[in-house]
Write a structure and sequence with these properties.
The chain is α/β, with parallel strands linked by helices. Helix content is 42%, strand content 11%. The chain has nine helices and six strands; from the N terminus they run βαααααβαβαβαββα. It is globular, with a radius of gyration of 17 Å. It binds 6-O-phosphono-alpha-D-glucopyranose (G6P) and magnesium ion (MG).
Amino acid sequence: GKKGFIFDLDGVIVDTAKYHYLAWKKLANQLGFEFTPEQNEMFKGVSRKRCLNILLDIGGIKASQEQFDTWMVDKNDDYLEYIDNMDESEILPDVKKTLQYLKENNIPIALGSASKNAQPILEKVGLLHYFDTIVDGNHVTKAKPDPEVFLIAAQAIRITPENCIVFEDSLAGIQAANSANMISVGIGEHTILKDADFVFKDFTQISLEFLEKLINSKKS
Ligand code: G6P
Ligand code: MG
């Protein structure tokens, strides 16, 4: 059947993890504890709310609902400041080439992200026009590894799940793609993304021949 491609945003298209890290670290420091880059690994693909819960666990802090909501807003305000200056130089290597190739071949392209800031980021880096649909943290109720975000994206581009190819940098995202019955392509390390159907270090390792093979595969 006809194929569709679904991209995660953070860690696949742009490296925003460093900005998320700075914003979470600032909050942690304000609350009187440290937050390390290693701990930030656990936050990849994880919703803002869940991240704050984990952060407060790390700091051993109990928050009232009101404090919790304030800190959610504070973190996001800081994050928005960090990403304000993003431009196309922050698109990860060869991502644009991949999107361009798919566009030229009339392949539907969707975004499937947990972020509520997905659309403004795509606008800032000038990639918004490649996407036929954006499904992000504003549209889902269940976080990855639940497949909801990718199933909604597939429906929006009218491609059956078995014919969707998902690019993801988080294990939760790979698991979400797998349980949606989609083809999962991990971007990162084999050791972390061990459940993926394919793993590449980054898009410079993905050839147009490989994309063509995926597009023409008849398996499903
Ligand atoms: C992505 C990132 C996570 C982030 C989540 C929510 O999945 O990998 O680190 O927490 O989006 O992002 P948001 O922009 O809504 O705070
Ligand atoms: Mg990601």
